[in-house]
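Section 5.1 Outputs to date
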Amino acid sequence: MTTISLERRKDGLKLARLRAHPLLASCPSSAVRRVAALADEVVLDAGEVWARQGETPKWFVFIVQGQAEVVRDGVRLAVVGPGSYFGEVPLLGRGVHPATVRALTPMTGFGIDSQHFVPLVADVRRLRERLTASLARQARLVELAREDRLRQLGASRPMRTWRMDTTVRPRRRLPWEWMAVGVSTLTVALVAASLYHPPYGVVAPGRAVDISQDVTITGVRAHAPRGVYLMLTVQTKRPTLLGVVAAELHGNRRLVKVGSSSSLPDPTAANRLSAEFTQSRLNAAVAGARAAGLNVGPSGTLPFKVQFRSRSVVGPSAGLVYALLIDDMLSADDHAQGKTIAATGAISASGSVSDVGYVSEKAEEAESAPAEYLVVPDDQAGQAYGRALIIDGVGSLDEALRLLGRS
């Protein structure tokens, strides 16, 4: 396994652990990915101190494993463990740590430094609401944190507490004539934008297709697949101007130039892409047979008969997932281990994996399916980064099977 693959797997596990934390459970995926980008993993031994009473706060911490005690002035206030968190009281309450947090067992967690934590809370509504409620439940600790800081500063003036500014400020109204003109202009523009189709298509994730029952093998011993295999597809739609704007704002949608709505599809290109899909499955059968240890003729002649279910799919990108499926059906080794596996990548008869299009969109589709494991061409693994599943980039079918067996 390459170092890059290890790092990608680590990033995927980090994202999955944060997504499972109760504080982030109802946050949108974009917010969880932002938290993951800011958070650093922290590991402590039993007896080590996460935070010390009276110190200026530097971190907000999500606890993932282990237990810690919360002690103030020598008195234990609580024991916290997985799913808990701390640091919001001094950071958002504008004080110092009101208690010492000491590990009772070996612990792991994810910490966000104070400079990034406060702006993050201000931007993410659901996180802000939950932490505001947390401060309200710990009103006495917030008060102690602020009092301790005031004593350190030697000041007696009141300090601002962290809260949302909900003051309703009066706005200056435009004259009604100008408002009417503005509304009319906006209405006309929206109607026009909803009717006009610019010469662009939007490439979006399609539907993940379970191909586990697509292949029939006769003439050699074969068995039912031991995993679930998902073929990833994309779709191109011709949107209105409003749809084009929405695609640009989405962040994971690609615009492609298309002809006019009256132009006919190019039959030559359609036939070529359909032939590529057919060839990709034939290559998958040869590569899968070789990986399973069967003897394949010099010209790729198979020692068995294989039939594929008809699919209205084009292009070569399904080759890798069909090769994984065929190896599963032929091999005595259980690489899948019951996992739901998504894959995209062109494959040769020798088993080498090469690049395909729209890996980022397909990774979004795999996450929604949901798949547990995503295999993509090695050079394109970076396009799948940030999804809540294990992602590996591979250069060959043999490498993909080795990584699956270890996961």
